[in-house]
Design a protein that fits this description.
- An eight-stranded mixed beta sheet has the order 6-7-8-9-4-3-10-11. Strands 1-2-5 form a three-stranded antiparallel beta sheet, with no helix packed on it.
- By secondary structure, it is mostly beta strands.
- The structure holds zinc ion (ZN) (2 copies).
- One zinc ion binds next to α1.
- InterPro entries: CENP-V/GFA (IPR006913), Mss4-like_sf (IPR011057).
């Protein structure tokens, strides 16, 4: 399985991740926009065991997802780059990794899907093969 390296902006944390499906899923939800400062984030669902923190410690920020379950966002305590988040509704063994922070992802090409597409800004065209108005329950 392909392994990728990631690093936060300040360099205090670093990680590796094995990615089963080398495709981005764009998320246009409000939380992604507020935390990322952009119109969407780049994601993929992977087994938690595929993520390996190789440097530093992560801080956790949690909020309630649509289902009422916690969404735990793991980030660098210094610069707030976030390698992944854990939606508790998905169970303990699955995380959502931010594929945009993985080195070498440029070769992946066209995204696989866009979720929360009903919140996509009107000036931004759909770029993925598939589009879903909402996402899996968070
Ligand atoms: Zn950092
Ligand atoms: Zn989102």
């Amino acid at each position: 399985m392909p392994q990728y390296e990631g690093q936060c902006h300040c360099g205090q944390i670093a990680w590796t991740a094995e990615i089963p499906e080398e495709r981005h899923v764009l998320c246009h939800c409000t939380a992604c926009k507020l935390m990322g400062g952009g119109e969407f984030t780049l994601n993929q669902i992977i087994p938690k065991k595929n993520f390996n923190l190789t440097k530093g410690d992560l801080k956790v920020y949690s909020y309630k997802g649509d289902s009422g379950n916690s969404v735990d966002c793991y980030m660098c305590p210094n610069c707030a780059s976030s390698p992944y988040h854990h939606q508790q509704i998905m169970g303990p063994d699955t995380i959502v990794i931010r594929t945009g922070l993985l080195k070498g992802n440029q070769k992946w090409g066209q995204p696989a899907a866009e979720i929360y597409d009903k919140y996509r800004d009107s000036w931004l065209p759909q770029t993925a093969e598939n589009s879903f108005p909402l996402g899996p329950p968070s």
